[in-house]
Each structure stands twice: as structure tokens, then as C-alpha cells.
Amino acid sequence: MSGSPTSQESSAFDRDVVIVGGGPAGCTAGVFTARYDLDTVIFDRGRSSIQRCASLENFPGFPAGIDIETFYGLLHDHATAAGCEIVSDLVESLEREDGGFAVETQDGRRVTARRVVAATRYGGEYLRGLDDEAMFEAHEYDGGQQSRFDRRYADHDGTTPIEGLFVASPSREADRQAIVAAGRGARVALSLVEAARRDRGYPEPLTDRYDWVRRESELGDEWSDRDRWREHFDDRVPDDYDRSEDRLAELREQEIDRRLASYIPPDERERRAERGQRRLIEHIDDEIVLEAAREIEAGRRSSVEIPIDYEW
Predict the structure, then answer these.
(1) Fold entry, domain 15-200
(2) Does the global pTM surpass 0.85?
């Protein structure tokens, strides 16, 4: 689902979004930003708290639990399918540069980005190059004083005093459970998308975005009409909107295209359902799939009624 005709916000930067951390928070954030057509890279190599777990038992959708290796694979597959690039490299430093950020990695990569999402539960030392001591706090450890990232630094929506820097983790709201971290990643990504829409010229009442896919039957005759959407859009434009009428018209038509594309017909819904289930099978061990198939076939054979002839 595209946010604009062009995939990159500004040619001044290598990427629209850099995400540091490829766990539940980082991958979820990446799914949302990439689906809005923001060019997103996720750096994932470091101390991962989720990979220290033995099994994930309380993430909805997995009633028998799920092993961490399969779960991590699903996270990365989803982020990649949404359009993210995942790079196995450790971010060592982050600095301001030309209205955005410059990211330096352990393997010698240097990437610039308009916006950055911090999504690593542990650490935060790479943020020191931003030179804001307010994001660090002193604490006692093993009889001495140490400094660590202040989990209260970001607001509830992930925004920070540094424009373009968003924090999903370390965060007081997201550090204890995978499902909470994933939700935090989504919330922060929506804040980032709102900022991107604001920069693109959307009026403030229209910066919010919902990433929904709906049944075409829910559209109705009234909302099938582009003029009805134009009216809805124009009603929310404030009187003090300061962009040109041509830019406003361009944004209006893009938004209508996006809204209408979110409604899908029954055949497309069925196609996506099958595609989704087949994609899940790719993450299941082949022997388990074959064993389940044999059990299904055996169940079908046993359910076939065998006619009995009582005539002797």
C-alpha cells in the first residue's frame, strides 16, 4: 500500500528511515514505514533479548507457543515482504547531518537517513553522538556509578526532543514483553508516518493514517464516488493551509487513490488468504508438514463410510 508515487522522501539521504534493532519493535515499525512507501533499512546485529528466550508462550496467534527461531524468521520475512531491507550489522554511532542523520556501523557502512527509529532493548550507546545528555541517566551498578539510556526520554508516541529521532526501545513502555514491544513499534511508526505526511504537505488534520485492508462490499455507493472523497478531504483542510492549490490537489488525489485501494474484492481477498497461508507453511519444518498431511489423509480415509451388505 503506497504512500506516494515516489518511494524515497528526499534524494538528499540514502534512506528515508533507518531502524536500529530487528526484534518485535523494530520489525513491526519497519512493516508500517515500508508499507507507507518509506525506504526503510533495519540493522540487526547485537544483544537481542528475544533470542535469549527459550519459547514464546504469550504472543497472540500462536496458541501452542512458538519457538524463537521460527518467530524471528517470521518477523524478518514480514518486514522484508513489506519492503524493508534487513542488514546484519551493528550500529556503532549516530550523528546529526544536514537535517537528518548519519549512521556508522561496525562493518564500516555509512548510511544517511531522514529519520531514525531506535528499537534495541539493550544499550543506546550509539546515540551519544547526538550530544543530548538528557537522554542518559546515572544508576548504581555493582557498587559503582554507570550511565545508561533514560527509558523516559521519549514521549508516549515515540517522538523525542531531537527532530527525526523516534524511540521504540529502550522504553519504559515496551521493554518487558514481546507483544508490548511490537505494539510500541507500531505506535512509533505511525508517529513517524504522520511526520512524513506533515513534511509532504498534508494539512495537520489529515496527517493521521490507518493501515487497513477492507472488504469492497464495505465501500458502499456513496464512498465509491471520488467526489465524495474530495469533499471529505476538503472539509478537513484548515483555513490557514499555506501550500499551493496545485499541491493540495495532488495530495488530495493521492489520498483518494490510497483510500480506494484499501478496499479489495472477494477474489482478491481469497487470493491473499491463500498467499498468506502458503507463506506460513514456508516457516514450518517439512517433516511436520508431511506428517500433518499424512494424518489429514488418514482421517479422510477413515471417515469414508463402507457400505455393509446384510444379504447372505
Answers:
(1) FAD/NAD(P)-binding domain (3.50.50)
(2) yes
